[in-house]
Amino acid sequence: MPDRPESRFSRRGVITTFAATAGVAAGGALLANGGGTEASPRSTEEGRRTEPFHGAHQPGIATPQQRYALFAAFDLEAVHPVRKRPLTTEQVAANFRTLMEQWTVVAESLMQGRPPRLRPVGSPQAPLDSGIADGLDPSRLTVTFGLGPELFERIGRQRERPHRLRPLPAFRTDRLEDAWSGGELLVQVCADDPQVVSRAFRSLRTRAPGVARLRWSQQGFLGVFGDSTPRNLFGHKDGTANPRLGSAEFDAAVWATPQDEPAWFSGGTYLVFRKIRMDLPKWDTSPAHTQDQAIGRRRDNGAPLSGGHEFTDLDLTRTGPDGKPLIPADSHVALIRDIPMLRRSYNYDYGFQGITEPIVTAPHDDGHADHDHGPGMPKHAGGGHDIYDSGVLFCAYLRDPEEFVRAQRKLAESDRLNDFIRHTGSAVFAVPPGVRPGGHLAAGLFPTR
């Protein structure tokens, strides 16, 4: 979408019962979800460190972006944890519902700065909380939940599956790994303190055994940026073209409506998650001009190469002294312009990954395997690129994941950044609408008890 000052997004600033009793309710009566009003924006009042949990939409989407994030995917258990017998669809559905009820209670408590009110199922003597965040501010904690494409068949709710929820197709440049792809349930935890993030994740995870198992997790961070656009590990600003929070443009790009989705999903959205590994050794030894041409923007101030400031519209027709476009047609920004989405990405840097066994490298389309990036580097799946794991946890919230698919197909064909990046993880989730007081997540899937 066009870059302009008013379009910038402001940045200041599951699982519970044992399958043995599939239908047991969570502690306390939890009412079915219903319509609600939009949560008011976070107060800028000094000392306010909590984000609202209740509202028409889940927190952690239109929330001003926090500094730390954890993403974790779970799969519902298919076998009884004690009897070792396959669970029926009805049992899986009952476990899922109870899971959502308990996770709702836990998330609400944590976001308000209180310890969870429910003990881990099956461990009646276990502490309510790990204690690792005792005395710490909630640090604008948000917890957001998503539902994967395979979930709805697992719980016998195929007719209620959001219409645009389907697995992402394979893209030409993908080098995906099962270790961080897919999932039936997603938990996104964000806060300004990494220890608060860890505490929240542990509180949710300890309520999962017997019902769901962890599939993958990833952690990310952002620099201190105040009102400015955060930078990725390439040093470039990431999210310049985000729609402005509260605008009609934002609502049209992000939120689902009852006109084109099941009624229960109105006010929900979709999350496309991609783990993108950056070849930082190659990037850091490339000329600054090559870097800017790959992005289509200047690294220092984020301005398009066609001139202006960070929020100046791209001018793809403007040429330089050599007669060539100042913004290359195959630059990243030229290819993704006009794609309606909210980028809420995070950097990650896991450092050097010690690998004791060689990894077979997948060939590129030209039939050649990835090359090593330096003398003396072991030949592990691309040498320096693959044994040093850093990059971006790309997160796009949008009303229709097909918009991302359209953009990614273009990028896979000709994006100059493909010389420096590799997509290694991929998932898509439907993010249900928010919760009213007394309700629980995804309650619309179960209108009656």
Automatic annotation (TrEMBL):
<dbReference type="GO" id="GO:0004601">
    <property type="term" value="F:peroxidase activity"/>
</dbReference>
<dbReference type="Pfam" id="PF20628">
    <property type="entry name" value="Dyp_perox_C"/>
</dbReference>
<dbReference type="GO" id="GO:0020037">
    <property type="term" value="F:heme binding"/>
</dbReference>
<keyword id="KW-0732">Signal</keyword>
<keyword id="KW-0408">Iron</keyword>
<protein>
    <submittedName>
        <fullName>Dye decolorizing peroxidase</fullName>
    </submittedName>
</protein>
<feature type="region of interest" description="Disordered">
    <location>
        <begin position="32"/>
        <end position="60"/>
    </location>
</feature>
<feature type="compositionally biased region" description="Basic and acidic residues">
    <location>
        <begin position="43"/>
        <end position="54"/>
    </location>
</feature>
<feature type="domain" description="Dyp-type peroxidase C-terminal">
    <location>
        <begin position="229"/>
        <end position="435"/>
    </location>
</feature>
<keyword id="KW-0575">Peroxidase</keyword>
<comment type="similarity">
    <text>Belongs to the DyP-type peroxidase family.</text>
</comment>
<dbReference type="InterPro" id="IPR006314">
    <property type="entry name" value="Dyp_peroxidase"/>
</dbReference>
<keyword id="KW-0479">Metal-binding</keyword>
<feature type="domain" description="Dyp-type peroxidase N-terminal">
    <location>
        <begin position="58"/>
        <end position="221"/>
    </location>
</feature>
<dbReference type="InterPro" id="IPR006311">
    <property type="entry name" value="TAT_signal"/>
</dbReference>
<dbReference type="InterPro" id="IPR011008">
    <property type="entry name" value="Dimeric_a/b-barrel"/>
</dbReference>
<dbReference type="GO" id="GO:0005829">
    <property type="term" value="C:cytosol"/>
</dbReference>
<dbReference type="InterPro" id="IPR048328">
    <property type="entry name" value="Dyp_perox_C"/>
</dbReference>
<keyword id="KW-0349">Heme</keyword>
<dbReference type="InterPro" id="IPR048327">
    <property type="entry name" value="Dyp_perox_N"/>
</dbReference>
<feature type="region of interest" description="Disordered">
    <location>
        <begin position="284"/>
        <end position="327"/>
    </location>
</feature>
<keyword id="KW-0560">Oxidoreductase</keyword>
<dbReference type="GO" id="GO:0046872">
    <property type="term" value="F:metal ion binding"/>
</dbReference>
<dbReference type="Pfam" id="PF04261">
    <property type="entry name" value="Dyp_perox_N"/>
</dbReference>
